Amino acid sequence: TPWHLYSSPGAIFYFLGEFVGAFLGAVLAWVAFKQHFDAEEDAGAKLAVFSTAPAIRSYGWNLATEAIGTFVLIFIILMSGGTPTQIGPLFVALLVVGIGNSLGGPTGYAINPARDLAPRIAHAILPIKGKGGSDWGYSWVPVVGPLIGAVVATLLFKAIRAQAIIDAIKAAAS
After folding, report:
1. Which of 82, 110, 115, 156 stands 20 to 30 A from 148 (CA)?
2. Rounded Cα distance, 135 and 54, in Å
3. Angle at 133 between CA 130 and CA 134, to 5 degrees
């Protein structure tokens, strides 16, 4: 894990990179599917391409769902301790798919603040025909929930001194 990215200066650039990447990805999706956006009449379907939305709007439960999904993602990645076979990216991709299949129904599982906020901003500023609003009243949930989940996962990882256990297992396997 490139832990230097999580220092204060490194983290700012890392988060900015994620945000810019998500924004540009949303713009490219709009470009690629512009004719479909023009033909589609349902403003909610257009927004769903750019951001998450709850199946049942209940801010407390939606926040909890986002926090749980992100907790699972971050805690399992931290507990994996790196993979000597270099299968890490595939592992994380399959983990995200698993979280989506198991916990994604209630909110659409942002599990990353940049995944929802940056595309939602793109939706707000792009000239999408018949797009409707960007649902700013809900927009805080897929930002705050993942932040809570990530912080709790990291605090638990540190509290149980998991890195020391992972290092001991790796040393014993060598």
Report:
1. 82
2. 11
3. 120
* Percentage above 90 pLDDT, the chain: 68
CA 105 – CA 99 distance, rounded (Å)? 10
Q: How far apart are CA 54 and CA 52, in angstroms?
A: 7
Which pTM value belongs to this model? 0.86
**126, 31 contact by CB (below 8 A):** no
DSSP structure string for 110-161: --SHHHHHHHHHHHHHS--TT-----TTTTTHHHHHHHHHHHHHHHHHHHTT
> What whole-number distance in Å separates Cα of residue 99 and Cα of residue 73?
8
Three-state DSSP class for 84? coil
Tens-place pLDDT, residues 3-37: 444 566 777 888 899 999 999 999 999 999 999 99
Q: Identify the CA nearest to 149 among candidates 112, 104, 119.
A: 112
The confidence score (pLDDT) of residue 68 equals 97
Residue 149, token pair as written in the block:
């989940």
> Average pLDDT, stretch 128-135?
96
